[in-house]
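FYI - complex with C2E, inputs then prediction.
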Amino acid sequence: MRVALIVRTLISANSRTEAARRDLLVVLILVSAVMLLIWNGGSLLQIATEGRSASFGTSMKVAATALILNVALILFGWRRYVDLQHEAELRADGERRAAIMASTDSLTGLANRKGFADGLQQLNAEISTAGRHVAILSVQLQRFKAVNDRHGYDVGDELLRRLASHIRQELPADAVIARLSGDEFAVAVACDCDNRERVEQAGEALLRILGRSYDIDGTLAQVGAFLGIAVQPAASDSRPADLLRRADIALERARSARSARPVWFDASMEQALIARSELEHALRLGLEHDQFVPFFEPQVDLRSGEIIGFEVLARWQHPTRGMIRPDVFIPVAEDIGLIGLLSEKVIGAALAAARDWDAKLTISVNISPTQLSDPCLTQKIVRLLEEAGFPAERLIVEITESSLFADLELARSIAAALKGHGISLALDDFGTGFSSLSQLRSLPLDMIKLDRSFVTTLMAERQSAAIVRAVTTLGSAIGVPVMVEGIEDAPTHAAVLALGARRGQGWYFGKATSADRTAELLTRNLAGPLEAPTSPPRLRAAS
Ligand code: C2E
Ligand code: MG
Ligand code: MG
């Protein structure tokens, strides 16, 4: 780099000296022509007045002056021509250099996004007549930010340079290689339609290079990568940009599946993506139009059959698709950061609906793991309680085991804050996560909810029965009531009772239903579950 700079400086210094020399020559000739003109001014005047009768000497002087003036003009013109040519060369050179810079990643020397698009177009044009295919490998580094954060940007930059140079060395010479953004690379290679091995090999080579550890001035830096591949005939109608988009879709699949191998694009991925983005759009719209409503699932005293409370389960009343279950939309709402808003709307509506129900009935609401990282969660819940005029003592917040494990400290502080406001805490889906006894001890729990997977297998698997018994015994030993989920029929009801369970919920007692129908059920204070698959016992609200 430095040598190139010096050479460029010398060249430009040289050309400046040359130009100055040429300028001096032209000026000298012009000055002598002007001096000659002044000197021969008398002779010119004489020729002008005397015409043909002027002397031979005078005519010669005038001719010499004219000649020198002509030479001076020619030199001047030539000088201008050379200058213009030189300027044009300089401009062309500058434009060439600007074009290279505009399509090159300055850090690694690889192509950038524009360079990749140009290179891809060129590759496409070169091989389209030969009926070959072009493949794009889209790559994203893993943990690159951690390298920057931990070792600094110098190490991160040097690592990128090393990776780029290794990629260049290992991949075929005709491959177009680019760094598209901080930690994203893309490679385009030609391949035969019936032989994808070359592409697969390039993908494996890339993953190998990007997975190695590199010693950078004594610091060991290592990343890793996810890789997606898409391929299409070079002569295809679809644009090269579409091919890159498909490789990116495959990359996204590799990333979400945390795949250590290249993932090939297939059309179903694109359809899934379209469906997903339509769902996101509809979800945003649904939130604006209050399409998310609370449904209430009864929770009962297993011995008396009395309803002791309800679990609030969100439902999406979609205008065309009907009632959508939370498994479909909760993960999407979490991903796009709308779970907090959705949850607030559902809890707010649930509290408002349940405010006038029997004062002994509790209301349990579900909180997603992502909501637990919201420092204002407790304040938001308290605000909802105040707005609805619902007593905090009747509210139970359900937190799943897995979300506790993500950040136990945070969960502990949120639990303490909720308890401080008189709100109770339940551990949901117990048995599906780490089922840590130290968690049970360290959190101020008011209820443990045994996951329904143990209950639905109760009649078939002896271990499930043993687990139900063990958890109910544990609950009574540490003074925390256990709620058994997923009781679907009378034999299961009888079995969990025999195993020591005292509280339960499930389709046998009633499927979740709307606020209006729940209120109806409570006022009639009879009628069994509205949608139960089997014939359940008659329920009474706790009095
Ligand atoms: P969960 O909190 O464990 O809720 C219990 C789920 O089991 C509910 O499914 C319920 O309908 C279902 N269920 C109850 N009894 C039975 C039974 O006897 N048999 C069978 N097979 N299933 C039964 P749902 O309503 O589809 O909810 C699924 C999950 O979605 C819930 O699991 C909860 O984690 C989440 N969820 C529901 N509503 C909300 C919400 O408002 N906010 C958040 N963050 N999550 C919610
Ligand atoms: Mg729950
Ligand atoms: Mg549960």
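Residues 1-7, 527-535 have pLDDT under 50 and may be disordered. The pocket of magnesium ion (ligand 2) is lined by residues 311, 366, 398, 428 (CB under 6 Å).
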